[in-house]
Amino acid sequence: MSKRPRPPTVTDAQVRDVLARFACELPFHAVRTRLLGSIASPDPLVTPLRAVEALWGGALPVFDSMEDANELISVLVMGLWNQLSEHQHRSAPFRLTRIEVSATREGVATLALMREQEVWNFGLGLVGSTPAPKFPERADRAMGVLFQVRGIAIGIRERAEDREKDMSTEDCAGLIQQFRDVTKAAEHEIHEAVLACARARRAIMPGAPAGRPVGR
After folding, report:
1. Where are the domains of the chain?
2. What is the pLDDT of residues 133-186, one digit of tens each?
3. Which of 61, 67, 179, 65 is closest to 113 using CA atoms?
4. How many CB atoms lie within 10 A of CB 66?
5. What gap in Å lies between CA 213 and CA 84, rounded to an integer?
6. Tens-place pLDDT, residues 74-99
7. Which fold has domain 12-204?
8. First and final CA of the chain: distance in angstroms?
9. What is the pTM for the complete model shown?
10. What 3-state DSSP class applies to 101?
């Protein structure tokens, strides 16, 4: 069996640089999950360009030159979008962004906010512009679990930000450890949702690619 063609290589640093230079309000970790959700979305109106435009509220930023425009498209569409499309295969599980945080309430709040934003943006991308999207059963169950994960993240963040509540170093370390399990659960459900949506598209259009890779 022939190997799948590999998408153009783009580094996290390149993506972060483009997002910063063109003043994208979404952080890098949220951009990854938003685009992954868009790739899996059953919304037929979702395209790579529209998904990237949504990162800036629905329209690309103003460019000083055609070179700037080409760079943004190259990094976010030809690079990141196509790389994330690989996660539509069982052999390429998705991983959320990892960061090292201190065992402090600030560290806990930072980690909780990151997971909260990742899950929320995956859901936004998956729903697309469809008012009442119909997901495959497995994807629908995955979204239920992810809704619970987001609730856990919000609860922990709010606790960490509440200065009236005592939080010892041991408490913080325990919550950070808890997030390791939460992260694994979220990753599993995100990947299962993506796989279920890819299978559903193949069932509707046999022979069609699983998702929306571009520039192949």
Report:
1. 12-204
2. 788 999 999 999 999 999 999 999 999 999 998 999 999 999 999 999 999 999
3. 179
4. 8
5. 9
6. 999 999 999 999 999 999 999 999 99
7. Four Helix Bundle (Hemerythrin (Met), subunit A) (1.20.120)
8. 18
9. 0.89
10. coil
